[in-house]
Design a protein that fits this description.
Immunoglobulin-like; mainly beta; about 290 residues; elongated; four-stranded antiparallel sheet; 3 domains; eight-stranded mixed sheet
Length: about 290
């Protein structure tokens, strides 16, 4: 027994004819008159920030585009809904941020000829515990990081520039980066810059003119409300990726130093901050004007 989708393709009938081990008297019956079926093909979930990020692949097996509601449940509670238009005979990938949880269910509401494939389920991996070391001005970073489940934060002594051995990441805020870091790091306005991007001098009120918004590091970030008062004058080498830039001022860079990945925002002061969903700009605090 099969539905019209398999009947139209002919694959089911061909397999029946080619299968010598089917018992005698096996009967094939076609049900349904159309291929008006949509399905949840795949659900992937990963931890992101303090919640989850889900990626769902849908498929329309019919001949016309269909608009339908896609519902996301986290641990049995509806967390998000979207109206999606699934093109005919093509897959559609939908991504959404969800609250923290363990079991994510994606369901196409509305019904079609086969209800069994209208739902997909994924179980989120447990986020591994992380140890982060802060060197320099750590009040803002400590408050931010300790709000994330599973993150343990240590603060280095005043003036220290530890190499980060034994930590999953290090934040160097206003202090120099060691020559041989032992962990991935974030360098914020570090004196002299970072390996591959030396800093000398200051740029006044640089306007943001370049944003590589397609980069995963900038996912969900809106910089339209951030005005920068001062930034380091940085000269990056070709080996360093510039993800955000202003006039004569790279503002966010990414690279590798001693085999360790790093990111480095260069603003030393910001003002008129409008909080994006995630913010890397040092100086943006809940007390910033605007």
């Amino acid at each position: 027994m099969t539905d019209d989708r398999a009947h139209k393709s002919g694959t089911f009938v061909e397999r029946l004819r080619e299968a010598p081990l089917l018992p005698p008297g096996t009967r094939y019956e076609r049900i349904g008159a159309t291929a008006a079926n949509r399905s949840v093909e795949r659900v992937d979930v990963e931890p992101r920030g303090s919640g989850l990020h889900a990626r769902v692949t849908l498929r329309n097996h019919g001949d016309s585009p269909v608009t339908q509601q896609l519902r996301f449940d986290v641990d049995g509670v509806t967390a998000a809904t979207q109206r999606v238009t699934i093109p005919a005979a093509q897959p559609l990938t939908v991504e959404v941020d969800l609250p923290a949880g363990e079991r994510v269910e994606a369901r196409l509401d509305g019904g079609d000829i086969l209800a069994a494939d209208d739902v997909g389920v994924a179980v989120a991996d447990r986020r591994p515990d992380r140890k982060v070391l802060i060197a320099g001005s750590g009040v803002f970073w400590k408050e931010l990081l300790t709000s994330i489940p599973g993150v343990t934060v240590d603060v280095a002594g005043e003036g220290a520039t530890p190499d980060g051995a034994g930590y999953d990441a290090v934040i160097y805020d206003g202090v120099a980066v060691p020559a041989a870091p032992k962990a991935p790091f974030l360098a914020v306005a570090s004196p002299g810059g970072v390996p591959g991007a030396s800093a000398a001098g200051v740029v006044e009120t640089p306007s943001v003119t370049l944003v590589h918004s397609e980069d995963p590091l900038l996912a969900g970030i809106d910089l339209s409300g951030v005005a920068i008062a001062t930034a380091q004058r940085v000269t990056p080498t070709p080996q360093v990726d510039v993800l955000v830039a202003g006039e004569n001022a790279p503002l966010l860079m990414r690279g590798v130093s001693a085999g360790r990945r790093f990111a480095s925002p260069s603003p030393t002061a910001t003002w008129r901050c409008r909080w994006p969903s995630r913010s890397w700009a040092t100086g943006c605090s809940p007390n910033s004007p605007g």
